[in-house]
Amino acid sequence: MRTIRQAIMAVVIFAVLLGIFFAIYALVRNRPQDLPWTKLDLGQPIGAFTGRKLAGLTDDFAECRALLQAAGVRYTILPAVKSGEQCGYADGLRFAPGGAQSIEFTPTRLGVSCPVAAGVAMWEWNVLQPAAQKHFGARVARIEHLGSYSCRRMYGRSAGDWSEHATADALDVSGFQLSDGTHVGVLEDWNEGGKKAEFLREVRTGACRLFSTVLSPDYNAAHRDHLHLDQAERGEMGWRACR
After folding, report:
1. In the chain, pLDDT over 70 holds for what percent of residues?
2. Residue 21's pLDDT is what?
């Protein structure tokens, strides 16, 4: 019994010391977004806990909308969808023109869950545009995608876990159109080397800081033509996937 108490005490002390470390680190660097207990601000640079906070918005549509509004993102709320026991969403929205989120989508009128929209907006500001400027001296004008909401299980199987697409909590990105006319496609360019492949890997890795799950052609053949981004809610310390 004493050994158990000592082990529990050691865990508590470690957690306290870890919290103190994070607090000092964030204060010294003036980066509150690196602390797990500070409020999420979409306008701040990506922090150590930004991705987990974004996924946590799954259960708070009102807070998610407020954060988008505070960041200058315009949107239209979508009607709730319900299909069977596992499919549907009540937190869907579509980006509207004229706001801080400026990248367009093909096909147009893309609808996603609010946490995915928040992640995409931060991906644009912190990852996509800097990477496009770095590699091409241009900006990303359009994201090409394979859709978000789809009432199905993972990999289209007839049994097993339901996909995050079943609740619009996922987006499959297939390519990018740049302002100078350059096209970058996951299927065409991932394995071709050069700056297009470098750009794709950079935006994939950057997405891993914002989304619960990011899967690319490096994961398996099913993702050879797209980047899968989702906001699966697995708790504050839940596992995250980046491949």
Report:
1. 86
2. 59
Backbone Cα Rg of the chain: 19
**pLDDT for 172:** 98
Which position has the token pair 């690196």? 34
What gap in Å lies between CA 207 and CA 215, rounded to an integer? 10
Residue 82 CA to residue 84 CA, distance in Å, equals 7
Quick check: pTM over 0.70? yes
Asked if 228 and 217 touch (Cβ cutoff 8 Å), the reply is no
Domains of the chain: which residue ranges? 1-30, 41-242
What's the rounded Cα separation, in Å, for the pair 161 and 237? 21
Classify residue 126 by its DSSP letter. I
Confidence check: pLDDT of 123 > 70: yes
From CA 200, how far away is CA 189, in angstroms rounded? 8
